[in-house]
Amino acid sequence: MDLKTILPSIGYLGIFAVIFAESGLLIGFFLPGDSLLFTAGFLASQHIFDIHILAFICFIAAVIGDSVGYAFGHKVGRRLFHKKDSLLFHKDNLEKANTFYKKHGRKTIIIARFMPVVRTFAPIVAGIGEMEYKTFLSYNVIGGALWALGLTYAGYYLGKSIPDVDKYLLPIILLIVFLSVAPTAIHILKDPQNRKQLLSLLTRKSS
């Protein structure tokens, strides 16, 4: 997607909606949160957005989105483990978030912000696990600030400090996406069973 073209057309409200959806709605797991935040920050450096309004909107969307995800998980989340896969829901994603949550505990709410897919399901899993909402909210605010404010201001200051940085925007975004996906990939590949299944799949495709 050409975010440099899309973001000015959807404006603050559209950016809010995307960050909100990716942070806590099941349909949002495929949305480009990391690259969107960075690109929006870069566009603010080009005077297309006001950086402070933009950062505030992204932060609020991230926090509210996670809170909605928590509420959803608290009310109906347990039923999801018995739900069949569909176009917009894959139980594997929920299981991965659940496993990650069990391993890392409450700090998952912060760590997951930088992990695509996991960040969408982590607040739902927290709600299912009946974490006290006060505790969840404190981690939610910290994670939302580090992710939404950090990436947005990073794009802004990079755009301000490097001449013609837009020429390198695509490689930078690809690097951000890679760094976002890498922790999840490493976590999955640490499991010998997952490595075996992946190797089996690659062997089948090559034969």
TrEMBL record:
The keyword Transmembrane applies. It is found in: Cell membrane. Keywords: Cell membrane, Membrane, Transmembrane, Transmembrane helix. One of its GO terms (cellular component) is plasma membrane. Its main location: membrane. The chain crosses the membrane at residues 12-31, 51-73, 136-156, 168-189. It is a multi-pass membrane protein. Residues 31-156 form the VTT domain. It comes from the Bacteria. The keyword Endoplasmic reticulum does not apply. PANTHER family: INNER MEMBRANE PROTEIN DEDA-RELATED (PTHR30353), TRANSMEMBRANE PROTEIN (PTHR30353:SF0). Belongs to the DedA family. This is VTT domain-containing protein. It comes from Candidatus Roizmanbacteria bacterium RIFCSPHIGHO2_01_FULL_39_24.
